[in-house]
Write a sequence for this structure.
C-alpha cells in the first residue's frame, strides 16, 4: 500500500517536479522488445501502455539521441532526466506499432538488429517454441534434455512453465546446438514443425531504411548468439558480420551494440570495442553516471503499467535494487 502511494505521487506532475532533489541523477536507458495490440500472437507490451510511456518521457524527461548520450550521462539534469529509448531484436511490430508512436512524438530511439534474421527472413527459435506449445494437444510432455525426469503436465500453467524452462535452457547452449534442441522439443510436443505457421520475426531491410531518420540501428550479433560461449573466432565473425551487414544496408557503420540476452564478459566487451563499437548495452538494471563503463551501459526494462515508469525513472527503486545486489534482468 505504501509503495503504491509513493508510485502515485511520483506519477503526478506536482509530485514529479517536487521530487527532483531526491531523485538519482544520471541518464536512463529504457529497453523494450515487442509492442503490439491484443491481436498479436506473441507476448508483448500493449501499444497503449507504450504510448503512455513515451508521452510521459516527452513531457517530463529529456528524450536524447545516441550522440548526446555521453554528454547527458556526465552532466545530467535532475529536473528532466535524460532518457534514451532502445529496442532489442528489430521485431516487425517495432515498425508496425512502436515506430508510429515515436514518429508522432518525435522521440529518437535505438534498435538493435540480429542481421541474419533480417537477411534470411527467419523466425526466432523462441517464436517457433511459443507456437509449438500453443499447438500442443498432449496432456504431458517429456523434456528431451532431462530423459530421466517425469513428464511435465501441460495443464494449469504447465505449458508456460515448460516454455520458460526451455528458453532458459536453450539460451545457455552453443549456437550450433540451439536449433537441434528446439527441433527435439517440438517433436516431443507432438507438433509437426512444417505445419507451424511462424512468419519472419524481424523487420525487412526496406522497413529499417525507411526509419533511419529517427531511429539509430545498432549491432546485436549476426545470429543472436550468446556471446560468452563463443570461441574468439566465432565471436569476431558474429560481431564483424553484423557490423558489415548493417553498414551495407543502411549506409552507416553502427557504433552501438547490445549483448543478446544480456550475456557478456570482459572478452566479449573487448571484442565489441575492437570491432569499432563505442557503446555496449547490457541488461543490468541501473542509472548511468560518471562511473559508467561505456561497454556495460545499464538499462531499465519498460514496465507493464504506465504508473510504474516515473517510479523507475526516479532512480530510487533502481538504487534500492543495486543495494540488494541485483543481477541481469
Amino acid at each position: 500500500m505504501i509503495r503504491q502511494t509513493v508510485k502515485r505521487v511520483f506519477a503526478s506532475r506536482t509530485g514529479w517536479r517536487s521530487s527532483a532533489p531526491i531523485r538519482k541523477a544520471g541518464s536512463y536507458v529504457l529497453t523494450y522488445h515487442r509492442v503490439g495490440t491484443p491481436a498479436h500472437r506473441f507476448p508483448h507490451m500493449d501499444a497503449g501502455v507504450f504510448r503512455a510511456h513515451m508521452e510521459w518521457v516527452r513531457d517530463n524527461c529529456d528524450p536524447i539521441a545516441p550522440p548526446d548520450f555521453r554528454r547527458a550521462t556526465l552532466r545530467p539534469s535532475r529536473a528532466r532526466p535524460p532518457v534514451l529509448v532502445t529496442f532489442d531484436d528489430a521485431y516487425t511490430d517495432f515498425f508496425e506499432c512502436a515506430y508510429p508512436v515515436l514518429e508522432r512524438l518525435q522521440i529518437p530511439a535505438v534498435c538493435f538488429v540480429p542481421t541474419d534474421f533480417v537477411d534470411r527472413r527467419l523466425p526466432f527459435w523462441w517464436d517457433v517454441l511459443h507456437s509449438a506449445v500453443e499447438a500442443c494437444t498432449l496432456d504431458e510432455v517429456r523434456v528431451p534434455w532431462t530423459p530421466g525426469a517425469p513428464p511435465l503436465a501441460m495443464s494449469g500453467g504447465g505449458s508456460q512453465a515448460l516454455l520458460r524452462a526451455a528458453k532458459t535452457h536453450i539460451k545457455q547452449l552453443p549456437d550450433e546446438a540451439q536449433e537441434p534442441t528446439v527441433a527435439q522439443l517440438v517433436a516431443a510436443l507432438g507438433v509437426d514443425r512444417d505445419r507451424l505457421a511462424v512468419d519472419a520475426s524481424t523487420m525487412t531491410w526496406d522497413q529499417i531504411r525507411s526509419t533511419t531518420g529517427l531511429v539509430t540501428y545498432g549491432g546485436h550479433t549476426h545470429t543472436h548468439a550468446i556471446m560468452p560461449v563463443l570461441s574468439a573466432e566465432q565471436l569476431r565473425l558474429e560481431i564483424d558480420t553484423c557490423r558489415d551487414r548493417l553498414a551495407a544496408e543502411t549506409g552507416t557503420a553502427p557504433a552501438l551494440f547490445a549483448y543478446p540476452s544480456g550475456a557478456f564478459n570482459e572478452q566479449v566487451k573487448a571484442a565489441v570495442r575492437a570491432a569499432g563499437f563505442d557503446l555496449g548495452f547490457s541488461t543490468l538494471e541501473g542509472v548511468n553516471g560518471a562511473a559508467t563503463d561505456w561497454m556495460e551501459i545499464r538499462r531499465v526494462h519498460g514496465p507493464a503499467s504506465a504508473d510504474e515508469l516515473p517510479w523507475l525513472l526516479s532512480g530510487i527503486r533502481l538504487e534500492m535494487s543495486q543495494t540488494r545486489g541485483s543481477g541481469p534482468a
Remarks:
- DSSP finds 14 helices and twelve strands in the chain.
- The chain has two domains: 2-120+205-323, 125-195.
- The longest helix spans residues 232-250.
